[in-house]
Amino acid sequence: MNLDDLEELASEVRAAGDSCPHCVRVCMAASCQSSGASPVLERLNEQLAGRDDVRVKSVGCMGLCSAGPLVEVQSRERAEPVLYQSVAAEDASEIAGSLGGEPVQRLRCPTDVPFFARQQKIVLENSGRIDPEDINDYIAADGYRALVTALTEMRPAEVLREIEISGLRGRGGGGYPAGLKWSTVAKMPADQKYVICNADEGDPGAFMDRAVLESDPHRVLEGMAIAAYAVGASKGYIYIRAEYPLAIERLKAAIRQAVRKGLLGSSICETQFSFELELRLGAGAFVCGEETALMASVEGERGQPSPRPPYPAESGLWGYPTLINNVETLANVPAIIRRGGEWFAGIGTDKSKGTKVFALAGRIENTGLIEVAMGITLREIVDAIGGGVPAGRKFKAVQTGGPSGGCLPEQFLDLPVEYDTLREAGSIMGSGGMIVMDETSSMVEVARYFMEFCMTESCGKCIPCRVGTHEMHGLLDKIVKGRGTQDDLALLEELCEVVQRTSLCGLGQTAPNPVLSTLRYFRREYEEKLSGNAAPAHGPAAKEATA
Predict the structure, then answer these.
(1) Nearest to 261 by CA among 138, 130, 159
(2) What is the distance between the alpha carbons of residues 68 and 64, in angstroms, rounded to a whole number?
(3) What is the crossing angle of helices 208-215 and 245-260, to 10°?
(4) pLDDT by residue (tens digit) across 449-467?
(5) Structure confidence by residue, pLDDT tens digits, 32-61
(6) How far apart are CA 23 and CA 26, in angstroms?
(7) In sequence order, which ranges of 385-485 are alpha helices (DSSP H)?
(8) DSSP class per residue in 332-348
(9) Residue 62 in 3-state DSSP?
């Protein structure tokens, strides 16, 4: 398939869609399905059966998960689509009857609010718009255009150059420059190279990668194929946890469809480039998000980290050079190749380019999935986009970066969200989880919750993490229960430093972060627990968000 073939198919699909006066999109991502979207879709199909002026379409995540199930109606006579929230199966007949007339006002969800207006979508540009199980729908939205362009009009070095110019940094947490990582793999002399998509998303309260894979799986496949062409790889793996059945189902379908279209497999676009792609299911071990543990799991070994160097770019899967990027990083690639590295570099800040996808959770009005330009402030995310803390309560802290991140108090709400500023404040960007806590949250309990998570998820290979997290959790539990002493607090701080500096991998090295940040900004709560003067507080918002 060449660019002319791709454009011809895209034009045909777009023309077929334009000929239909009404399009009803039903969110069928996991969040809306859990709220009852399947009966809504079924009832709408029943109500609109036999009508050739309406197309009912299953789509991915529309973002505002707290208002699901979501249904969007786009009609030719209206400039803007109408979004309906909290739709029940019983509402299907009323929605069907409103087509061509006045919308159902009681179900309308306003779309001129900051939650929608202040977002800037690159990774999520197709989410909620296309059918994730239909490759033609993706192609109609300029899908695979970047891959075909790269294979037929660009040399691998030119693709690498665009990624370097873009300033794209890894969205998995560390923020390592993608162009530098790709170039390192490309320079390695080897008969075999691999590309791995790390989809082992395990942070409590995080669902960014899952939503992207459920909503736009072909985008990730296209990004992987472009990466493989650029670095000289011929084989790829998507490592995804088995707890994501819907994402797995849609990825399998997407791979089959891409192979049939000649966009994956042998001699793609009738060129000499071939790229085979397989899924590998993880059993849910958080440590397998670390790249060396992930590779061990792909190889069929126990998922435990290994010392570095050598790094995967030099000696990775089965000893061969391996490029590992997470879902969001790879999902940015097609847009960069289509629009150019300079376009992407023009978004965001000097050191943090592009956009970032966040999962808003915890005690916040608008829970869901958002994508914003780097450099936006925490206040804009929490108060404007997120709608603030509900029930008239006061904001207390926001935790970014999952168990590896930190808890930032109100004084940091005007902090721009970028890699370096968050790190300086005592947190990290992480993969994009963002949990908001209100005045009822006990920050000592929050620290204990995340330490319990890290303790449980430790693979046990190195003593600092295996023993240190257990001891730190014990100290935190003792303090929470009012039995702690000043000596316990001093020992806790000492242990944080030891575990941080001596653990083998990122899990142990970052496990103390929630403790250190809460000690730094909420030390008074620890002191009150020691003296027995703590005010009663409910369980941590982090636990509530992941229940």
Answers:
(1) 138
(2) 7
(3) 40
(4) 999 999 999 999 999 999 9
(5) 999 999 999 999 999 999 899 999 999 999
(6) 10
(7) 419-425, 443-457, 463-480
(8) HHHHHHHH-HHHHHTSB
(9) coil
Classified as helix, coil or strand, 25 is strand
- CB 276: neighbour CB atoms within 10 A? 14
Q: What is the mean pLDDT of residues 349-362?
A: 96
**Alpha-carbon Rg for the chain in angstroms:** 24
How many whole angstroms separate alpha carbon 503 and alpha carbon 340? 40
Name the pTM for this structure.
0.95
* Adjacency order of strands within the sheet including 368-373: 368-373, 355-362, 433-438, 395-400, 406-409
State how beta strands 194-199 and 235-241 pair.
parallel
Mean pLDDT of 361-377: 97
CA atoms of 372 and 25, how far apart (whole Å) = 23
pLDDT at 468: 97
Spatial separation of the C-alpha atoms in residues 128 and 135, rounded to whole Å:
15
Torsions phi, psi for 115 (to 5 deg): -55, -40
Task: Give the mean model confidence (pLDDT) for residues 313-331.
Answer: 97
Q: Exposed, middle or buried by CB within 10 Å (0-12, 13-18, 19+), for 117?
A: exposed
Query: Which of 166, 490, 467 lies closest to 336 in space, CA to CA?
Result: 166
What is residue 204's predicted lDDT score, i.e. its pLDDT? Answer: 86
User: Which secondary-structure segment (H or E) carries 246?
Assistant: helix 245-260
Q: What is the largest CA-CA distance in the chain?
A: 75
Q: Phi, psi at residue 371, to the nearest 5°?
A: -135, 125
